[in-house]
Design brief:
The complex is a heterodimer. By secondary structure, chain A is of the alpha+beta class. Chain A contains 27 helices and 23 strands. In chain B, helix 2 crosses helix 3. Chain B has five helices and three strands. Classes of the chains: A alpha+beta, B mainly alpha.
Chain lengths: 908, 122
């Protein structure tokens, strides 16, 4: 017997037994006939045979069950005749319709299930909604996991892509590579093709307003390694790496559309970037994804690397500023490639007279470098989704169980009339599966919306967020989930049906405590426990978030507007010109109505910018805890008063503190307390660099309050400020404090720049509120996600408690009636029901507390200012849950007191 | 005649099975092949559809099991053969007459349509 025939024989078991007994041999014979014919037609014929058999099963299975005499699939009213129709009178409607396309029968089956559900719409809705929420949560999280972690990077043969960099002991990152290393590797290493990249902002002039573009200088092989094809024109080739090659540029699709309206004539046009004319040679496709491992953020324009690195010697290992990607040759492992890179690097270092051990090349898969340890970030959320799904399943099982008990009588009658238990079980399972499919459809729709929301609201730190989509695999996953959950929750009522002997169920009166009672209690306890775990997690994150946004930042973010100016170009080459420009803008804004104060800094707090340098303090011997570097900012006069940083001792800078004046510095309290513990920093001296360097001494003229420079959740660092007027270099951000809403001042700031330097673009601008909001976008996002899960699971648990108690009251109507007839007062009846509900809840909470203590550790990276096992949070969450459960039991308890003893006894 | 009017309309599958069995005894696979061939492949059945239909038609008295003609010699396998019953022939006749009337009606309607100048695409 062939494997196909064995399979077909197995599938035949799906038909009703009577049908199969009669026709199995003939159908197998027909199958063999068809297969014989298919053999003459080769593999395609066999495929067609398989398709035909499957289509035939799908079409005829429902029909045969439908026509099954007394079939469980048929509504009772439409059941006709028995199996003895053979030779009987021809009945209209019997022949007709039954040979349809199969679609009709399927619709009828679904219609039957629908009618069953419509008799109890509340039950059907609750079940479908509960499952849909669980499935949507799981599908969304799987989509995120799949899009971010599992799916290969969006490049051809992505598994051969690597990142190459300098490996430093104890550090995870791959450091920058020097042009000399890149040059040599490109020339001499055959096992991996490599390309370097360096980000550089460029000012674009001409074709509209001047604008700062984010640019990247890349090797000629960069796009070939990523295997990108141009949307227009050409990309770079090896000729771009030759010294003295034409300056050419490639635009991203976004820039091309935004700035040039997707005009094809831009190819061949010259654009002026940082004063150099570049010829546009091509446009990248719209779906090009930059390799996030080597640079975050969007790049607007690409140009050949030599235009940012042409002044660097190709033989001397000096400045390292290149990010490097590579493509392994076919069949070459990452370690073999690294060994080859290393050998070349050692030669180069020796030729440079350097210790080869001082610098060691490392290589890692680009995918791993991109995703990083994001998998770990996802753990708590995958856990949360798993719990949510479990709660949903428990709830549906509970509901189904209640319903199965209600239908116990119906089932018993049908069993007594001859319906097999197997048949009834199959019917219940079918109902479960129909529910599950409906729920998965609703769940998939919900998930689609949730994924769209994720793409829109995900914090920018998440890698590959834009690549997250609900793809067919994810939908398959949802379908699988639906089937599994359908079977899981369908099992409870089936066990119930199979477990009860028909006689006892028929005799069973209301008031009997069915065997399902204990199972239901276990389910409710489990639900409450899992809801508590989610609730504790959400409460921890919400608490952290509130603490985070209420952190004393050390400055007053409200009412601040800012604008960053990049004085590039010939006119602004001298520091004096730059200082004069900023000073003029400062003066204009100070005179502007509605402006309370004007300041400025090179590193706006919480914007993620930070400059660091080592320092030497007069008379101080560095200890083991002395930081290697301190962070510093170049600030304008009035900066501290404008931003609300308190000057504890000494003074602010003035415009007099310029290049000609004696060098001065202001330090923060963290720095002062480290270098001058217990003493007075004022009047002390320090300079940048190591003790032997020749930086000038600076005198400390002020000590200011600590602020949160990098992130609201990170403790203040030792920090110092120097007057911008004394250096006149770099980007400068002008900050103004408004009387009221700072937003209207943004235009005034632009106008001030336009008036002083019409050719300069505004580098960046905004209000401090926006910066603050961006800085807490990730914690807010995580809090919202976990909060949503917790809210839904709380709701489900409350429904579970309510359903169980309401059902118990209905079942015990007679018993409660007897009690009340015997003189029990309403209060004690109410107390009894309420007590039972609370006992279940308490058991659930006890389990939940233990689970919380064990599981919330995964939230360690997410909480701020609290331990993940914070007793107050756990107790608070448990109390809230207990209160909700009390309300859920209160309603049935009150209903129990309304039982009329006479009615209750008569009803028997 | 009115009795047989009760039988129609027949579904296409029933109609073509009856046609395939007219004047000839066939087994299941043969019937399916004949129907598929005569309808140019528009009606393709698998074992389930085929035997389900045959079983119900047998129940309705349109067809009956027939003697195995046994002409397949030593390789003959045990097969169930079917023949058309008198009731089946009448049903086939009634359905054909009904289709005739429907075709005549349709032709007349199209002729009127064409005369009215609402010409179709040829």
């Amino acid at each position: 017997m062939s494997a196909g025939e064995r399979l077909y024989r197995l599938l035949l078991r799906l038909y009703p037994p009577a049908f199969r007994r009669e026709l199995e041999a003939d159908m197998l014979q027909a199958y063999r006939d068809w297969r014989r014919e298919a053999r003459y037609r080769g593999p395609l014929g066999r495929l067609r045979l398989g398709m035909r058999m499957l289509a035939d099963l799908a079409r005829s299975l429902p029909r045969e069950w439908w026509h099954q005499p007394g079939g469980a699939w048929r509504p009772t009213a439409r059941r006709e005749g028995g199996s003895g129709g053979r030779g009987g009178p021809v009945r209209r409607g019997r022949t007709r319709g039954e040979e349809g396309t199969g679609m009709g029968t399927i619709i009828r089956d679904v219609g039957f299930a629908a009618r069953t559900f419509l008799r109890r719409p509340g039950f059907a809705l609750a079940t479908v909604a509960t499952l849909a929420v669980g499935i949507a949560g799981a599908t969304t999280m799987f989509s995120v996991l799949d899009g971010v972690v599992l799916r290969p990077l969006p490049y051809a043969d992505a598994e051969r892509l690597v990142q190459v960099g300098i490996r430093y002991p104890g550090r995870d990152a791959l450091g920058s590579v020097s042009p000399a290393e890149l040059h040599l590797w490109r020339e001499e290493v055959g096992s991996v093709q490599i390309a370097g990249a360096r980000l550089q902002a460029m000012t674009l002039v001409g074709d509209g307003e001047p604008e700062i573009l984010d640019g990247a200088g890349v090797s000629g092989s960069f796009f070939r390694i990523l295997d990108v094809d141009p949307a227009r024109g050409r990309l770079f080739g090896p000729e771009e790496d030759r010294t003295g090659a034409e300056p050419v540029a490639v635009l991203t699709h976004g820039t091309w559309t935004r700035r040039w309206g997707a005009d094809d004539s831009v190819i061949g046009r010259r654009v002026v970037l940082d004063g150099v004319p570049f010829t546009v040679v091509g446009v990248l496709p719209s779906d090009f994804v930059p390799p996030e491992a080597i640079y975050h953020g969007d790049v607007d324009v690409y140009f050949p690397l030599q235009h940012v690195a042409d002044d660097v010697s190709p033989t001397v290992v000096a400045d390292a500023f290149l990010q490097v990607i590579g493509r392994l040759a076919e069949g070459v492992g990452i370690d073999a490639a690294r060994a080859q890179l290393r050998a070349t690097q050692v030669d180069l270092l020796l030729a440079n007279g350097r210790d080869p051990d001082s610098r060691e090349v490392g290589a890692a898969a680009l995918h791993a470098r991109t995703v990083g340890d994001f998998g770990r970030t996802l753990v708590p959320f995958l856990g949360a989704v798993g719990l949510l799904l479990l709660v949903a399943c428990a709830n549906v099982a509970n509901l189904s169980l209640v319903r199965a008990t209600e239908r116990g009588r119906e089932m018993a009658v049908r069993t007594a009339l001859g319906a097999g238990r197997g048949r009834l079980a199959r019917q219940l399972l079918t109902e479960s599966l129909v529910t599950a499919v409906a729920a998965s459809a609703a769940g998939a729709a919900l998930a689609w919306g949730a994924v769209a929301a994720f793409r829109r609201f995900a914090p920018s730190g998440l890698p590959r967020a834009a690549e997250v989509t609900v793809d067919p695999r994810v939908l398959l996953f949802a379908l699988g989930l639906a089937v599994i959950t359908g079977l899981l929750f369908g099992l409870a009522p089936v066990l119930h049906v199979l477990g009860s002997s028909s006689g006892s169920t028929l005799r069973e009166r209301e008031g009997g405590t069915g065997g399902g009672g204990r199972l239901r209690s276990v389910l409710v306890v489990g639900e409450v426990a899992m809801a508590l775990v989610l609730f504790v997690g959400a409460a921890l994150l919400a608490g952290s978030f509130v603490r985070l946004v209420n952190t004393d930042l050390g400055f007053e973010p409200q009412g601040l507007a800012w604008m960053t100016v990049a004085p590039d170009g010939e006119r602004w080459e001298s520091p004096e010109a730059r200082v004069e420009l900023i000073r003029s803008i400062h003066r204009r804004l100070a005179d502007h109505p509605g402006v309370v104060a004007v300041g400025g800094t090179s590193n706006l707090p919480l914007s993620g910018n930070q400059s660091v340098r080592n320092i030497t303090v007069e008379g101080f011997t560095p200890g083991p805890d002395t930081p290697e570097n301190v962070s510093y900012s170049r600030v304008l006069p009035g900066h501290f008063v404008t931003t609300g940083i308190d000057v504890r001792r000494g003074r602010e800078f003035t415009w007099v503190d310029d290049d000609d004046a004696a060098p001065v510095v202001v330090v923060n309290e963290a720095l002062a307390s480290h270098y001058w513990p217990g003493g007075d920093a004022l009047g002390s001296r320090m300079h940048f660099g190591s003790p032997e360097s020749d930086w000038p001494w600076m005198e400390v003229v002020g000590v200011v309050e600590d602020i949160r420079q990098l992130r609201p959740g990170e403790p203040p660092l030792p920090e110092l400020y120097i007057p911008f007027a004394a250096v006149g270099t770099g980007l400068q951000t002008v900050v103004v404090r408004a009387e009221g809403d700072p937003a209207p001042l943004l235009e005034a700031m632009r106008a001030a720049l336009r008036a002083e330097a019409p050719e300069l673009p505004v580098y960046r601008t905004g209000t401090m509120d926006q910066v603050l909001s961006d800085a807490v976008v990730a914690p807010r996002f995580y809090t919202l996600v976990l909060g949503a899960f917790a809210g839904v699971s709380l709701l489900l648990a409350v429904i579970g408690v309510y359903g169980t108690m309401a059902y118990a009251v209905r079942q015990r109507t007679r018993e409660l009636g007897v009690r009340m007839a015997l003189g029990a007062d309403r209060g004690s009846v109410r107390g009894m029901v309420l007590g039972r509900g609370l006992a279940l809840t308490a058991a659930g909470l006890a389990v939940g507390v233990v689970l919380s203590l064990l599981s919330t550790r995964v939230l360690e990276d997410f909480v701020y200012g609290v331990t993940p096992t914070d007793p107050a949070t756990i107790a608070g969450a448990a109390l809230a849950l207990a209160a909700a459960a009390a309300v859920a039991s209160w309603v049935p308890a009150v209903r129990a007191t309304r039982i009329d003893p006479v009615e209750a006894l008569r009803a028997d | 005649m009115t009795d047989f009017e009760e039988l129609v309309p027949l579904t296409p599958v029933v109609f073509h099975i009856l046609a395939a069995l007219s004047g000839r005894v066939r087994h299941g696979y043969e019937i399916a092949g004949e129907v598929e061939e005569k309808t140019g492949g528009t009606i393709r059945m698998g074992p389930g559809t085929l035997y389900g239909s045959l079983r119900r038609m047998q129940g309705d008295g349109l067809i009956a099991e027939a003697e195995d003609p046994g002409h397949e010699g030593v390789h003959a396998e045990r097969r169930r053969y079917y023949r058309i019953t008198p009731l089946g022939s009448e049903a086939l006749r009634a359905e054909t007459a009904r289709l005739d009337r429907a075709v005549a009606l349709g032709r007349a309607a199209l002729a009127r349509h064409d005369l009215a100048g609402g010409g179709g695409a040829g």
